[in-house]
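Sorry, I am new here, but would you mind making up a protein's amino acid sequence and the C-alpha cells describing how it folds?
***
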Amino acid sequence: MHQLSALDAQFLNAESPTTAAHVAGLAVLDPLGAVLDREALAGLLEARMHLSPALRLRLRTVPFGLDHPYWAPDPDFDLDRHLFARELPAPGGEHELAEAVGEVHARRLDRDRPLWEMHLITGLTGGRIAVYTKVHHAAIDGVSGAELLAAFLDLTPEPRLTPEPQAEDSPAPGLGDMLAGAARSVLTHPARALGSLVRAAGELDSIPLAASLPGARRIARAARLAAGDREPRSDLPDLTVPRTPWNGPISAERRVSFGSVPLKDVKAVAKAHGLSVNDVVMTMCASALRAWLLARGELPPEPLIAGVPVALSPDPESGAGTTVGNRIAAIVAPLATDVAEPYARLHAVGRSMRAAKRRFAESPANWLHELCALLPAPVSALAVPAAFRLASVVAPPINLIISNVPGPQFPLYLCGARVLSYYPLSVLTDATGGVNITCFSYDGMIDFGVVACPERLSEVWTLMAHLRTALEELLDEGVGDELGDGVGIDLVPG
C-alpha cells in the first residue's frame, strides 16, 4: 500500500480543463523486417508488464479528499483500455505525426484506470513506425519514466528472456486504513506544515517569484540561522521573471515539434569552452527562445528564467525504491537571453548554471517538496489550479521548464524494430508557461521534444529550427570532436 507524496499529489491537483499533467515519449522506429503491429506490442506488454508494476496501479481516493490518494492494483485491468493503434494520413511526414501526437498529448488520462496509454502509429514515410507513450506525472518523473520504457526494450533485435512474474503482495488500502491515515494526517499537519514553512523560508532566496520579493535574502539568512545552519550559501543572480508572449493562461490545445542534433557536436562545443554538455543544451534553448522573441519584436531586456528539474538520489528512509512516484527537485537559473553574442551567451549560461548547481548542492532543504506540503490535502486539491491560473496573470514564477535527460549511447529495439529516435514531451501549466523544451540523449544524438500551447506559441517548428541554428552558431573549424561532458547533476523532465 503506497500513498502519494505531497509532490505526487500536486501533479494531480495541477490538472484542470486546460492542463494535462502527464509526461510522454515518442519513439520512431525502423522495423528492419520485424513485425511491429498492435498484436505484437500487446504480447510484449503482457509478457513484461510485471517489470513495471506501476502500469497496473490505479488511484484509490480517500473519502471527501481528506488525504492524498493511494496506489492500488487495478482488479479490472484491461490492456485494450491502454493500447491503441492509428494510421497517419498521407504523406505521413513529421508534421502529420506531430499533429496526431499533439492531439493525443492534449487529452487527460482517465483516473478510473491506471494512468498510462500507449499509441502505435503507422503510415510514416519510409515504412517507419512510431510509438507514443504517456504516463501521469503523479506516477513517474523523467528518470523513472526512462527506466519504465527500458523494461520493454532490448539490446538486440532478438527479444531477451525476462524473469517470471513474482506473486504480488500489495493489497488495496481498506476504507478504515485510509480514514485512520487521514485522521493522523489532519492532526499532525500543523506541526509538519510549520516545519516545512521554516525549511522553505531558509530557501526563500532561491524559490521562483519569492526570491524577487524585497528582503527575501535577509529573511532566508535569518531562517537558516534560526534553524542552526550557519554555513554561508552562494548568492544567486536576480530571478525576476520578465513577461513573454507564452506566459499567461493556456488553452487545452497542444502542438508539438521534434528533432535531433549530433551529440558529438554538442560535446565538441562543451570541450572547446570548458563547459558541460548541459551548459551547451541550455544555451541552445536560450538562443532559440531569443531568436523567436527577436523575430516578434518582443525580446525583454531582462534574461528569461528557466526551471530545470533535477533527479534526486533514492531516500532509503522514505521507502525509495518503490515503483511509483517522483524523486525530483528543481533549480532555477537565468538563460542569458539578454546577451547578443553567441559565445558570450554560452559562457553566461555556464556561469548561471554553475551558480545554481552550487546553491543546490549547499541546500539541504528541498523547497519544491516543502512548498507542496504546506497546505493540507483537501485545501491543496482546491487551491492549486486557481493559484496556477492567478500566477500566470499576476506574476509567473518562471518563464518555462527545460529538461535534459541522459540516455544510452547504443541502439535499442522494440519487438525487433530499431529505435531511431526518442523524443520526450512534457507538461504545460498556467504557472510554468505555454512552452516546454525537453531533450534526451540517445545513440549519438540529442533528441528534442517541444510542446506548446498554440494560443501562446504557435510556431513550434520554427522554435525547433532555431535550436538547430543555435548549435550551428557555436560550431566553428576550431572545435574538435573530442568527448567532454562534465555534467554533475542528472536533469529530468517535469
Remarks:
- The radius of gyration is 22 Å.
